[in-house]
Design brief:
Elements lengths: L2 H13 L21 E4 L14 H5 L5 E7 L11 E8 L9 H5 L5 E4 L1 H14 L41 H40 L7
Antiparallel strand pairs: 1-4, 2-3
Bound molecules: iron/sulfur cluster (SF4) (2 copies).
One iron/sulfur cluster binds next to helix 3.
Length: 216
Amino acid sequence: MGWFSGFAVTLRQIRKGKVTERFPFEKAPKPVRAHGRHVLNRYEDGMEKCIGCELCAGVCPARCIFVRGADNPPESPVSPGERYGFVYEINYLRCILCGLCIEACPTGATLFGKKRELLEIARARVTAEPDKYVQHIYGEHEVGGTGWLYLFGAAPEKLGLRTNLGTTPYPELTAGFLYGVPLVFVLWPSLLIGLNYLIKDSKVEETKEAPHGEQR
Ligand code: SF4
Ligand code: SF4
């Protein structure tokens, strides 16, 4: 796109009215193709649906899924099959939300869901099964809310997760510095250059006013 087309896009947008969404009080309709986030599903009895087959990782065009399956312990099986997903990770920096992993899954273990809906499911689970889950949805409030939500049967710190992250979103921590950057890099140089000119001008005038031969 050339610079003229770029300006044309900008001008077209200027003529449109501003769109202010009063989220979360008013929820704007999502685009039809918006997918949401992945969730690893369970059966009604609490058994995990994932069997660690790695099919989702195989079809992922962005190569962002890492699955490691493991044999189910006979005394306390995690899933109904022989194996279960011992590790299941998605790198959201690379995910393009194409949905192929959801289609490939033979057990319907992965689903796309909107964060609000996932939180409702998570809250219902921890409330319904207080003996099974700690009453804390890790990721709901940490650093202002993360893309990952975890339910635990033990305190997060026992599982090696940090609990001192606070609830302030990380962008807020750097906002003060970033707002100060224009001040430092634009206003300060302009001020110093202006002062420099003023000082130079006053020196020139002093030299002009001084009598011939007299040096100041
Ligand atoms: S949605 Fe697409 S890119 Fe994202 S993890 Fe699934 S297959 Fe990979
Ligand atoms: S999420 Fe589905 S496709 Fe992926 S490893 Fe688990 S069972 Fe297999």
